[in-house]
Every structure is written in C-alpha cells, then in structure tokens.
Amino acid sequence: MQRLAQHSAVVILATFLCGCAVDSNLSFAPDFMKQAPPASSAPDVPPDVGSLLKSNVNAVFAQGSSPADLRFSPPVAGKYGGWDTCVQGEVVGVTGQPLGLQTYLVNIDRNHVGRRERVGSDHWCARETYKRL
C-alpha cells in the first residue's frame, strides 16, 4: 500500500511538472493550462506636465504655500511605471515667511499626480533643465 502511494505521488508530481520548462514554447501541458504571454502595449505618451500643473498646482505643492515662478523638467520614464518629472517653485511657509526655492520629484501616471517627494541639491533633479510655466 505504501509503495502504491509513493508511485501515485511520483506520477502526480510528474504530471504537474510536465508543464514546467525552460522554454515557454516547449511544454507538454495542454494550451489551456499554459500562462498567456503578456499583452504588448504601446509605449505611453509623455504627459503634458505644463497643463497638468496649470490645472492642479495643489497636487504638487501644499495648499496655501502660494507657489510662484513654477518650473518643470521634461518627463522621463519612471522606474516603477508612469513618468517622473522635477518641479520647482518659490513657496511660502505656514507662517507666511518665504521658504525659497523648493524642488519636488513627482510621479505622473495616467495624467494623475501620484507620488511626490521633496528632494535636495544632491538629487538628479538638480542637474535637470527646467521650463517656466
């Protein structure tokens, strides 16, 4: 009985593993058991950062910071999807005192501002060329 169970386990394991292969085109599994290849999508068009900032500047800068002299860099493909761009602006703090030029790294995905983070002078945004808004 134990020998039958061992042989059954080997047969079942071999059946499940027959679909595994180094080359996805070389497999003994039926087609309905194979994973579909990823759909090839057309590369995204870079977003229009200028119009996005004009329509919703509060998506990047805190409300009440009164950003002035806005500038942005051309978008580059983001490491984790979407597009990354650098945005600079002269902002005012909560107390009304000017904070000076602040630089933000902004991720834009499907024309929506996602992640944004303030970066310093040692970030790659410091080496970018900026366009005025």
Could you describe the 3D structure shown?
With 133 residues, this protein is of the alpha+beta class. It has two domains: 2-33; 49-132. 17% of the residues lie in helices and 29% in strands. The chain has two helices and six strands. Strands 1, 2, 3, 4, 5 and 6 form a six-stranded antiparallel beta sheet that branches. A hairpin with a 2-residue loop joins β4 and β5 (112-119). The protein is elongated, with a radius of gyration of 26 Å.
What's the layout of helices and strands?
Elements: H1 2-17, H2 49-55, E1 68-72, E2 76-77, E3 83-92, E4 98-109, E5 112-119, E6 131-132
Could you tell me the number of beta strands?
Answer: 6
Question: How big is the Rg?
Answer: 26 Å
* Mean pLDDT metric: 84
**pLDDT below 50 for ≥5 consecutive residues: which ranges?**
none
Number of domains: 2
- Note the gap between the termini: 79 Å
Amount of helix: 10-25%
Counting DSSP H or I runs of 4 or more residues, the number of helices is 2
Largest sheet: 6 strands, antiparallel
Overall spatial form: elongated
Tell me the quaternary state.
single chain
Structural class of the secondary structure composition?
alpha+beta
Order of H and E elements: HHEEEEEE
DSSP strand content: 25-35%
List keywords for this structure.
2 domains; six-stranded antiparallel sheet; 133 residues; alpha+beta
Nutshell version of this structure?
The protein has helices at residues 2-17, 49-55; strands at 68-72, 76-77, 83-92, 98-109, 112-119, 131-132. With 133 residues, it is an alpha+beta fold.
